[in-house]
Amino acid sequence: MTRTLLLPSTVVIGAAALLLAGCAPAPEQGGSADSDYCARMVTNSGGLEDRSFNQSSWAGLEQAADEFGIDVDVLVSTSETDLEPNVDQAVGSGCDFVLTVGFELAPSTEEYAADNPDVDFAIVDEFVEADNVKPIVFDTAQAAFLAGYLSAGVSETGTVATFGGGNQPPVTLFMDGFVDGVAHYNEVHGTEVRALGWNKEEQDGVFTGDFEDINKGLTTAQALLDQGADVILPVAGQVGEGAARAALESGNALVIWVDSDGYETLPAEFRPVVLTSVLKNTGDAVVEIVDSSINGEFSNEPFIGTLENGGVEIAPYHDLEDRVSAELDAELDGLREAIISGELEVTSPSTPE
Question: Which pLDDT tens digit goes with each residue over 176-191?
């Protein structure tokens, strides 16, 4: 039986079923590729070492090179003017597979895929409809729900917060799940933990306007700390490092990273304030899709990462394990299983299907 969740009117968990039918099954990995097979990746304007999806996507392509013996390379975009020329260069290399990362690259991906039907394309965090383009997307609301519940459980001030780089579906999907998780904690425990920075009902909140300016993350996070928040989820790429700086300097606040494990990818000085991370397992998805391309099994069916298929998850608590009680950790395990089984439905206007 599906459990109905009664939440405050400002934070509502949707009632739509969590559909896994749109998830492409992970293909079985095969042997080495033909020696002529090659793959190219194009980053968005955040660059390669963004501690986010560019970095994790490239790690996946490098892993594919090791496993399948293929030639790979990356074309790094540092501004919007680099995007189309870099896709042009990637296609011009004559490679069999081109991976693009982020919504900024959707127009160029669509254009070049149409002109090059024999090339397999994949795009991370965006949908492009074409016979030879495979979207790689993630239902991050599921894992962010766990992170929101966790943050409410460890908060000492009764106030947590989130902010984004821009009001875009891959960003707001995290924020929806986060505030829903906080609301569910309040329902279960009879508490009134506040979630600043995002109103799910209005689909509006706090944004820095970009994904590169770390100083904007610092000032935005500081404003939220000044309102009492002691756990912050920045969904803003490199900008989030500013939130980590603000938390570290405050002496009593924590951050939850996104996409990759911030404990591993952020500078080591921030490890004491990284509570967990909302993970997108982009690397493994890239390896699977390259394998399907090599073996002639490529399809344009979207890969949708979920808790069930391991595409999304929350990271270990690392140095902050003692902040998470055994009872709270057990509750999170129960919530994870309830989401996977469909007993607990976590949805968003931005849920990928």
Answer: 999 999 999 999 999 9
**Annotated domain spans of the chain:** 38-138+282-305, 140-259+311-341
Q: What is the pTM of this model?
A: 0.84
Give the chain as a 3 state SS string. Answer: CCCCCCCCCCCCCCCCCCCCCCCCCCCCCCCCCCCCCEEEEECCCCCCCCCCHHHHHHHHHHHHHHHHCCEEEEECCCCHHHHHHHHHHHHHCCCCEEEEECHHHHHHHHHHHHHCCCCEEEEECCCCCCCCEEEEEECHHHHHHHHHHHHHHHCCCCEEEEEECCCCHHHHHHHHHHHHHHHHHHHHHCCCCEEECEECCCCEECECCCCCCHHHHHHHHHHHHHCCCCEEEEECHHHHHHHHHHHHHHCCCEEEEEECCHHHHCCHHHHHHEEEEEEECHHHHHHHHHHHHHCCCCCCCCEEECCCCCCEEECCCHHHHHHCCHHHHHHHHHHHHHHHHCCCCCCCCCCCC
Domain spanning 140-259+311-341: which superfamily? Response regulator (3.40.50.2300)
pLDDT for 34 equals 57
